[in-house]
Amino acid sequence: MELIHDVADWAWARHHNPLSWYVRPLLLLPYCYFAWRRSRTGLAATIIALATSMAWFPAPAVPDPRAAAFLDFERQYLIAPWTPLKILFALSVPAFLAGLAMAFWARSWRIGLLIANAACLLKIWWSLRYGGDSGWTVVPPAALGIAVLNGLVFWLVCRHHSAHSRH
Predict the structure, then answer these.
(1) What is the DSSP string of 102-126?
(2) pTM of this prediction?
């Protein structure tokens, strides 16, 4: 049991690295791509990447105080007793991933973006509502991730329509 605790502490310290915060929303790009390509292996690999990405980067020598405050809040939230609302919030993550995959699998990029944007706004709302001022640390990585996803999908759709209109 101590080994699990040590590994969790090690990963949590590394999650203080800002790169960890920025890479997670960007992992939605391959997730949506693999759903579009109907690759279960790609989806599974991306879920593993999402689950482990908090530990990919070294722990910062001096963590950002607001990020540290938010992560402390998040850790306390996770170890506190589980309420029905907390369970609902927790279940929203796999529901989001399933809905996003189903939308892109079905080639419905509009529904996919609707789900992704709604989830981004929900994450920001939750972070600000429950994390207070420290929740603002979530906004830049979430906003960048969703902007890149929206921009790339719109670019690909326009490129696709442009290529088909020439034929």
Answers:
(1) HHHHTT-HHHHHHHHHHHHHHHHHH
(2) 0.88
Q: Which residue segment(s) compose the domain that 47 sits in?
A: 2-165
Query: Contact at 8 Å (CB) between 52 and 85?
Result: no
Rounded CA separation 30/132 (Å): 31
121 CB neighbour count, 10 Å cutoff: 12
Contact 117, 150 (CB under 8 A): yes
Round to whole Å and give the CA distance between 52 and 46: 10
CB 38 within 8 A of CB 105: yes
Name which of 27, 3, 32 is nearest 157 in CA terms.
32
Number of domains into which the chain is organized: 1
Integer Cα distance of 111 and 66 in angstroms: 34
> What one-character DSSP code corresponds to residue 135?
G
Q: What is the pLDDT of residues 16-68, one digit of tens each?
A: 898 999 999 999 999 999 999 999 999 999 999 999 998 999 999 998 999 99
Residue entry with tokens 């502490």: 9
165: tokens are 């209109």
